[in-house]
Every structure is written in structure tokens, then in C-alpha cells.
Amino acid sequence: MRRFSQLYRELDGSTRTSEKHAALVRYFREVDDEDGAWAVALFTGRRPKRGVPHRLMREAASEVTGVPEWLIRVCQESVGDNSETIALLLPPPAHEPDELSLAQMIESVVMPLRTMPDHEKTDVLKRRWASMPEDERYVLHKLIAGGMRVGVQQRSIARALSEVASDESVDAAVIEHRLSGVWSPTAAAFGALLAAYDDSEAGARPYPFFLASPIEDDAVESLGAPDEWIAERKWDGVRAQLIHREGLTTLWSRGDEPMTDAFPELVQLGSLFPAGTVLDGEVLAYDERPLPFTSLQKRILRKQKEVMLFDDVPVVFMVYDLLEHEHTDLRARPLRQRLELLDELLHAFEQRHGTPRHLRRSLVVPFDGWDQLTHERARSRAMNVEGLMLKRLESPYRTGRVRGDWWKWKVEPYTIDAVLVYAQLGSGKRATRFTDYTFALWDRDPGQDGAELLPFAKAYSGLSNREIEAVDAKIRASIVGKKGPVRVVEPTMVFEIAFEGLQRSDRHKAGIALRFPRMARWRTDKAIGQADTLGTLEALLPEERV
Amino acid sequence: MKPAAPRPALLRTDGIGLRCEAGGFHVDPWKPSPCAVITHAHADHARRGSHRYIAHHDSVPILRHRLGQDIVIEGRGYDEPFAMGEATVSLHPAGHVLGSAQVRVEAGGEVWVVSGDYKRDHDPTCRAFAPVACDVFITECTFGLPIYRWPEPRVVADELNAWWRDMRAQQRTCVLYAYSLGKAQRLLAHLDPSIGPIALHPAIDDITTLYRAAGVALPESVRFVKEIVKDLRGGAMVLIPPSAAGAEALAALGPVSDASASGWMRTRASRRWRSYDRGFVMSDHADWPGLLRTIEEIGAKRIGVTHGTVKPFVRYLNEKGYDAFPIDTAYNADETEGAA
Questions:
Q1: For a FRET experiment, which of A241, A487, A545, B144 has its CA 20 to 30 Å from that of B327?
Q2: In sequence order, what are the residues at sequence separation of 6 or more whose Cβ sits closer than 8 angstroms to the Cβ of residue B108?
Q3: What does the pLDDT read at residue A447?
């Protein structure tokens, strides 16, 4: 437990990827397989179920410290994290620390907690506290209650493990693949993670994705002859590769995360292609036309246990590239050829299996001159797409974000000037500052009598730390009321709010829901009388579809 | 029987500062006063514009440096009572920074003590806090929550030097953010000069010169100016006030590791906020046990609370049987100059 707490401290205390990596490698080298396995499990979201509610922890801490519970709650507001608060409150340990390993702590202390009656849970906690230093208590609380936030993703774990593995064939992608799906933290499973790569595991792995770079309006014309390029819609989904090799079909997102469990219907689709096929495209919520991204999120977050419900959010794989055909890597071939092969493949597919329900070909947007494309881009919002993609016909499929051959030409966000009316403390490292704001628009021209501010959107991103500090200070000086955790602020500050789209919504007070609202600018030059009205926002609503 | 009419408060806020009617002065006024008794020279306690200042001898050069050489100021020693109108006033060590003082006011048979900012931990650069018996104790409570408990300064000093040694081995320059008055000199006193050169930002260097002149023993240091940056790269310790973050000369230091030393570093959210590489828990304010211990030692039943987490601290003290009340002042409880 001490070694794991040290790792936790190192990861949490560092903002450098290289340091985190080195800390993980040291840990995995030093500990036995059981403790290695549990660390992998914890950092990939496989923690034991919560054994003790926060309420009970707080009661026990109050008994041990004599600090009244109301004051512990005040501390929690200031710290922003229950596990940390209680670790900070407790007096130094009364006994020498005991030397339980991470695996022992989890298996013999944390896991049995769940089935105990409350008073026994409290007793166990108090006994543990008495023999643990502060940082170990903090980790213990995280083991019990969850919420480990140390900025380590499955990918970093995989990279560290591949360095620890003695065999060169075990690269990070192999380990990530081994970690996909159900994985139990045992010594044997940890050993298997590091074992030499075996061809029978098949390359169910994706190719590194080629990513487009953003392009500005005025740069488009300088791309050269339009006939060297194709244009496609920029779909608002999740980039993915659908892979079928040797009886194994997998779906990988751009973050090298398998999404196989979340979209069984796409895996089924992929399995119908000949072995040795890799398609590049976008997983998209789609019902005759693209649906808002939020619908797709529901599917991703839902995960495997609730697949029964998947019919309510239909998805398609919107394919736009062919990376492997009949086991041949096509990436060095020009896009022109890859697309021809893709069309042949899709044609053959339809001949055999009929029109697939969950597959669409991302159609090329025809154009003669760049002007024409500007008009096409303007239609993006109406089509629920993010803009256009421009791809050079002679380009190979490159690795990563390489400028020059693939461009994304997004539509400008909408913007509106709104007044900050409520504020709330943030969470995590923003826990001590007011970072989450609610904005309002005027219900009529602010010059008219009785004009009122109507709250319409929340936003919490877009400002620099320095700006947040300034806004925070201003908020603290102008709080006029309180509604639970929300502070009512005297309206003085105007912000330019940018957002990607909007739709009518009964769940929102102002009747409109925004997509990805964020603060584009703090308009210190504007008084609140210069903010926009709800009417301005309503005028941006897309025409109702019947 | 009618209850006795409450005595008028010896000190109360009047929009200019904490005013003593009987003595005709303010303690740490935030607006110009005819006479200002200053607890210490941090910017939120010592402001420009008063006609006359009174402070501890060691504070005088610092106040002149900060407020202007032309201010009218009298220096006083600790434990030396002097008359102010109908009141008797004396200064007592507060342990916050060099020259910091509690202000004891006696008038009409009653004794009030204003703590100013104070700490109970050891600090080689200033006199230790001395409890003074009184009827009413006005305490700060910057860190008036039970989560704030400071580690031993010695332990933190060891961590600090260990960090410096590590970084030197990695050829990184250490940049340590510290307030220019008090914290910087305290940290300097804890640094091990055998590890490498120590450079001080001019704002810190100026105050440090005043500390040395007052007889405070501190390790040798150089002034952080552009010309010497090349000698500092890859292993020096550079102390910088937070307000100078992002200065041009910093960029020339090459790879750095940066850190902050303050009481706020106790919580993860504060450590992460500025993404410092390291956060050392070292404060010039009393921690929770320090506040409670002080109130107990002083023995006053009436406790005025200001400057920090006032509301919960007042409630806590009242639940413990004290007669505690909030005092509204304009001192910053935030991470501004001098606060942590």
C-alpha cells in the first residue's frame, strides 16, 4: 500500500507525461504481479464497488477528530473532494503503519466492507486510520469511494507496461487490446498482459489514424487546383476503424480505445466483410439524417450492460476510407485508388448481403470552384454536420496530424453576448474558484421598461486561469444571494458565448438548448445593457422540421 | 434587575479601519487615517495615505521602502507600553514576518489585543509569537478550517532542499514562488547554500537587504538580473514573487522546475490550479491547531474573528463556549501579497 501511495503521489504531483511514465514503469518493475494487476485495474476504471458511503465516512471522522459534521461539510466545500477532506482532517496515526500490500488492502479490507453492517464499517475505517499516514488514507478513501483522478489513461498504462515487458513484440497497442473487455486483476492476468505476442492473437489492432488539420476561410483558395481535391461532409460523430481479420471483428476509436462492446451492431456489420478488411470512418447517430452528437454520447456512456436499449439511438458506420483490402495494407496508395477499391468492396457487399442498415458511404460533395464550396459549407448546420473535409486525391494515408493533405473546414460557431447571473464553484483543481457560470439574455430590448434577464445557458470553459481569477474575484465581491450551491451574482459582466448549434427544448427555462456553449471572450468593453436579447437567439434557430 | 448596559467596544470598524476611539488611532486602516498603528508591512495591512504611522522598529525600514521614504513614522519596541489619548498601547511579537506585531490596547479597565497576522511555527527570521492576556482577542483566521494542519517546518525544509538537489542533478533550475516580504526570507533561511547558487528577484532582494540590516542571518544570495542568468542555468534556486511569473528573464533559465510554498498548498485543488511542479506546505499564518491553541493560551472569553473563514470559525468557537463575533475588515483572505 505504501508503494502504491507513493506512485499515486508521483502521478498526482506531476504534470509531465515523461515523469508519469517513468513513475509507472518503476512501480510495475518493483511490485509483484498481484499489486501490478490491481494498479492496472484501478487506473483503467475497474475498481471495487463503493463499500462505504461518504456520510458514514464523515460520521466516523467526526467521532475521531471531534470536528462537528457541519464543519466537515464546510471543509469539503473548500477542498472539493470528500476523500481528501477526511484524509486532511484526521490526526497523525497512533500506531506504526502496517505493511499490507495493495492487493491485500483491496481484497481483505476494502472488498469485504460492502457486506458489513454500518457500525462494523466504521470500526474497520477507524482501525485503518489509526495505522496509516495521511497520503495512504487518501488512497484508501479513493479505493473505497472511487474518483481517482491522476491524469493517467489506459493508453499511458499500456505504454508503461510495454516498456516493462521483456519481449519487444509487446507494444502498447497489443497491451491495450489485451485489456479490452472483461479483465480481472489477478497475478496470472498481469503475467498474461506482459507475455510475448502470439500471432494467434491476430492483428485486431487499428492503424494509426490520419488526422485532418483545421483550415481558415481565406486559406482555402490557396490550396491550388480544385480538381486535385475532393470534399466531404465533416460528420459529427466518433472517428473509428472497423476491422475484420481472421474471424475477429473490432471497432477502435481514435483514442486507441476499443468500442467493440458499445456498438454490437457495427461489429456484426464488420464481420460480414471479407477477412483482411480495415475501414476508416465515423460512428454516427443517424436516422435518415445525422442526429445530434448528444444522442451518440448516450450510446457510448451506456456500455455493454444495457445494450438491450440500443434501438432507440440508431447508429451507422459512415465509411470514407479503405486502409486494408484482402490483407493488403493500402495506406501508401493514393486516396483516389483507395476510394475506387472501397466502392468496389461496397458494391460486392451489397450484392451479397443487400443494403446494409448500419453502413453509409460518406458521399463526395461535387464542386468546380472554391466559391461553390463556400455555399456547400454554409449548408452544414442544416445538415447537422460540422463543416467540410478537403482531401487531396493523390495523398497517401499518413500517420497522425500531418498538415497538407487533409483539411477540416469547420463552420464558424454561433456567438451571442450574454450576462453572467449565477456562479458555482468548480470541481477538481477548480474546486476553490467560481468557474461554472450561468448566463442570461434580455427578455426584450433592455432599454424598455421592465426588461429582465432570463437565464439560458451554462458554460465553464474558454477562459484562461488568469481570467478565471479575475472573474472569481469580481463574483466574490458581488454575490447577492444563494440557491443551494449556486450564488446569485449582481449582473455586471458580459461574455461572448460561442456555441455549435441550438434546438428548442422544454427542459430549459428559456426554451432553447445550446450545443457546446463556452466563453469565447470576456467583453469587458460592454455594459450589461449591450447584451443580446432572447429574440436574437431565437432568430438563430434552424427552421422547424415537420 | 436591569442588565448592565454593554460597554462600548474598545475597537470597532468605521469604514477606515479598526478604530480605537479612546486612543484616537486605527489599526491597519485600509483608508487614510490621522494615525495608523501597523501590525506588519504586507500590502493589505499597510496602506498609503495615513498622516502618521506607528509600527515596530524592524517594520519601519520596510514600511518606508514600501510606502515612501517621506511617511511620518515612529518605531516602537516589543513590550514597551506608550500612551495614546486615553489608552495605553503596546506591541508584542506576532511571529508572522520581521517586525510583525500584535497590538495591545488598554483603556477603561479593559484590555483588547489585535493579533494582526500570526503564526506559531518556528521561523528563524522573526521573533516568536508571544501570548498576551486580554479580555478580547481579535484573531485572524486565514486558515480557520480543521483541514489546515502544517507539517514541521524542518521537514518541509528538508523536502525543499531534496527537491533542489534532485533538480540540480537533472540540470534543471528551481524557480520557487514566494511573497517578497517574509515568506521569501524564511525560505531563504531554510535553503542549503552548499547545493548551489541562490538568486533573488529584485523585489525580494530589496526586502532581504533590509532583513540583513536588521541582523537576520541569511545564506548568501545574488540579485536576479538578466546579466547573471547564464550562471544560474541548470541548478540554481531562484526566488520570485508570484506577481513576476512569466517574466522574460525566467524564459532564459532553460529547463526549470517550479514550486510554490504556502499554506494553500495543503489541498490538491490549490496545488493543481497553477500546475506548479511542486507545492510545499509552509505558511506564515497559524494553522487550525495553532489558532485554537492560541485562543486557549490567551484565555480571553470574547473573540473577535476577522480575515479568512470567519463564519464557520465564529460558529465553531461559539459552540465551544466562547463569545465569538465577526469583525468585518478589508484584508485579503486570498492569495495576494503576503497572505499565505
A1: A487
A2: B7, B10, B22, B86
A3: 84
Tell me which amino acid residue B125 is: T
- Which residue in A71, A85, A429 is closest to B316 by CB distance? A71
Q: Are the C-beta atoms of residues B28 and B39 closer than 8 Å to each other? A: yes
Residues spanned by the domain of A226: 210-410
pLDDT at A197: 74
Whether the per-residue pLDDT at A482 is higher than 80: the answer is yes
Asked if the model's pLDDT at residue B222 lies above 90, the reply is yes
| Exposure on the CB side of residue B321, measured as CA atoms within 13 A | 3
Q: Do B147 and A75 touch (CB under 8 A)?
A: yes
Considering chain B, what percentage of its residues have pLDDT values greater than 70?
Answer: 95
Range of the domain at B108: 11-147+284-326
Q: Would you say B104 and B136 are in contact if contact means Cβ atoms under 8 Å apart?
A: no
The angle that helices A187-194 and A172-179 make with each other, rounded to 10 degrees, is 150
Cα angle for residues A477, A479, A484 (degrees, 5° grid): 140
When CB atoms are compared, the residue of B146, B269, B334 closest to A75 is B146
Q: Which of A410, A444, A473 is the last residue of a domain?
A: A410
3-state secondary structure of B90: strand
Res B133: pLDDT: 96
Report the complex ipTM: 0.91
| Claim to verify: residue A422 and residue A440 sit in the same structural domain | yes
Order of all β-strands in the sheet with B256-261: B222-223, B198-200, B237-240, B173-177, B256-261, B278-280
Nearest C-alpha of chain A: how many angstroms from B269? Answer: 4
| Domain boundary pick from A410, A432, A455 | A410
The overall average pLDDT reported for chain A is 87
